[in-house]
Amino acid sequence: METVLLSDFVRWLGDNHSWIQAISLICGVTYMVLQIFQHKWMWYFSIAASTAACIIASTNLDGGAWAPLWAQVALNVYLIVIAIIGIIHWRKLESESGGKLHIVRLPRARLITCLAIIVLGTPLLAWVLGKTSDPSPLLDGASLVISLVAAYLLSQSHVEQYLFWIVANTLIIIVYATQAKWLMAIMYTCYNVACIMGYINWKKNGVIVE
């Protein structure tokens, strides 16, 4: 009985994605606007947007059948964790920068590590997702790995995180477009516009802290 009720609830969520997408869109765009100016409230909107996106990805229906976008589920759970880390870490950086927009230099070793993770992790994750019901294992896997790296770089306040996000968001736009999740595709398009604006603002007005 409980399994039937759970199945019905998942299907109900899958059939009512529009309003959940709207919540994710509003919170997501607000998060990106706040990120441009490095406002600490961005993390709380990130948690809200990621929670809504996680519900959408986990209850995705493909041809009436349950087809969760597992990479997107994992990504958004990870983003919630990263947001909590960001809230804590940025308090220290804000103190060191005197409350100004803060940037931490990206060490070459860390950059090389991040690129290695993407190169090695993408085919591995795509193979794993290919064993599931995920309808876009390669795109989903690549976007997840790159997003994991970008989210970590954001939590550490590296301006280069924007470049990784632009690539990841572009892949996610394609994933959601193929599933006709148009509001989600629009949201990630807005993310990319905000990434470009944020990159310019951080480079221009950021204070480098060590």
Overview of the structural elements:
α5 (108-130) packs antiparallel against α6 and α7 (161-178) packs antiparallel against α8. It contains eight helices and four strands. It has one domain. It is mainly alpha-helical. Helix content is 77%, strand content 5%. It has helices spanning 2-15, 17-36, 42-58, 70-96, 108-130, 137-155, 161-178, 182-205, and strands at residues 61-62, 65-66, 102-104, 207-209. Strands 1-2 form a two-stranded antiparallel sheet.
Spell out the blueprint of helices and strands:
Blueprint: H1 2-15, H2 17-36, H3 42-58, E1 61-62, E2 65-66, H4 70-96, E3 102-104, H5 108-130, H6 137-155, H7 161-178, H8 182-205, E4 207-209
Parallel strand pairs: 3-4
Antiparallel strand pairs: 1-2
Summary tags:
single chain, 210 residues, mainly alpha, two-stranded antiparallel ribbon, two-stranded parallel ribbon, 8 helices, 4 strands, 77% helix, globular
Mind summarizing the main beta sheet?
Answer: 2 strands, antiparallel
Structure class: mainly alpha
Fraction of residues in H or I helices: over 70%
Structure annotation, total helices: 8
- Any idea how many domains? 1
- The pLDDT mean sits at 85
> Over the alpha carbons, how many angstroms does the gyration radius reach?
18 Å
In terms of DSSP E residues, the strand content is: under 5%
Lateral strand order in the biggest sheet: 1-2
Shape: globular
List the helices and strands in order.
HHHEEHEHHHHE
End-to-end separation in angstroms reads: 57 Å
Uncertain segments of ≥5 residues (pLDDT<50)?
none
